Amino acid sequence: MKKRVGNVRWGIASLLSLGIIVNYLDRVNISVALTPLEKELGLSNFQTGLILSSFLWSYTILQLPVGAWLDRFGVRWLNRIGSFIWALATFMTGLVSGFGLILLSRILLGIGEAPVFPGASKATGYWFPIKERGLATSAFDAAAKFSSVIGAPLMAFIVAGYGWRAAFVAAGIINVVYAVIYWALYRDPSDSKVLSEEEHRYIVEGGAQPEKVAPTNVVASFGFLLRQPKVWGLSLGFAAYNYSFYLFLTWLPGYLQKSLHMSVLKSGWYTVIPWIVATITDLVIGGVLVDAFIARGYDATKVRKTIVTIGMLLGLAVIGAAFTTDATLATIWISIAIGGLAFAAPVAWSIPSIIAPKGTVGSVGSVMNLMGNLSGIIAPIVAGLVIDKTNSFAANFLIAGAILVIGILCFLFLLGRIEQIKMPGEGEKETAEESLLGASKV
């Protein structure tokens, strides 16, 4: 009978996932509140696109330094500080008036939330053996989708009943509660008082990333990583995914309200459907199925690349939404697209903790997130410009489809085999150590 090793690591996965849910409430509420916010402030579609993307300006700029800080100072303190900053920014969004102050609030929100995803990726590398990395990663990635499942109708209800400002005040209160919970509960494995010795051994022997290992020369480390085709293949492929993800995250309720003439409340409920599909496919296919195939002995690289490719191909279903004005058909096409993209995402997020040289998971994750969020900045602005120029949303779906094709090619041909990158001199050092070990045995 197999001996149980404990489940503290899954408690950490739940804590990280809860953080992502709370985190994404701050991205959902602005989308749901779009129409009344536009009316009160008298915004054009282009100005709305700027507000929708402004969160990502600071978020994206901070990705490289945040990656270095995570590798140097650890997940715990960076996310503690960030959680209180993003709570402050959320309250501020609901209390201020005028285009400029709303823009400033969203920029501050990006600063607070910058460490969240790279931090979750790094923490997963610490807390989980490689064979469980797929499900652990899909747990926090699926939380980003599930946040829209609960967040869209909740925020729509609050906006419809109490006004758009109330949605931000409510989200701010939730943020503060989570910040306190995270402060109290998150620890790295070596600092945890509830982690058993057996479970710690199970995690470490299963290939977890070593703790408190950071590159001594951060600039040289980033320079080396940016010369690696694997890092570019992963980052550009993820950028293609993120373009469509942010198009849907920021504009889906607005698309339903503007193009399909739904009320705020009705658009909130229709928005839920694709995100329910995304949550399920993320966990079941991107998590459980990937881990199951690898556990049965299938080549890990082929499994991950196949799942990513299939998911992004399904994402091309977004093109179908360009050719219908029927709400049901549009929702079906969008659900297929988001569902496919959703199970590709956790596979992509599991890759930094596998390919990163020792002590650089945060750095690789931040490069990937930087590229992804550059496309996330562009997506809502381009969408707003396209709507202003064409008075239609259709061309936005076609643009997203073309970008996905480029992303698929990057995953297939630039990423290569999914295995750890060796830092300069590391291979020779390990060979020398192995020779010494062999000599000592003789």
Give the tags.
disordered C terminus, single chain, mainly alpha, transmembrane helix, MFS_dom, 442 residues
Order of helices and strands: HHHHHHHHHHHHHHHHHHH
Number of strands: 0
The average pLDDT score comes to 83
End-to-end distance:
38 Å
Count of alpha/pi helices: 19
- Which regions contain 5 or more consecutive residues with pLDDT less than 50? 428-442
Task: Please outline the major beta sheet.
Answer: none
Strand content: under 5%
Q: How does the helix and strand content classify structurally?
A: mainly alpha
Helix content: over 70%
| Cα-atom radius of gyration | 22 Å
Overall morphology: globular
Pfam families: MFS_1 (PF07690)
Organism: Dictyobacter formicarum
Subcellular location: Cell membrane
Keywords: Membrane, Transmembrane, Transmembrane helix
Topology:
Layout: H1 8-32, H2 34-41, H3 45-61, H4 63-73, H5 75-95, H6 99-113, H7 116-127, H8 133-162, H9 164-185, H10 197-205, H11 218-225, H12 229-258, H13 264-295, H14 300-315, H15 327-350, H16 352-355, H17 361-390, H18 394-413, H19 426-441
Structure description:
By secondary structure, the chain is mainly α. It contains 19 helices and no strands. The longest helix has 32 residues, at 264-295. The protein is globular and about 55 Å long.
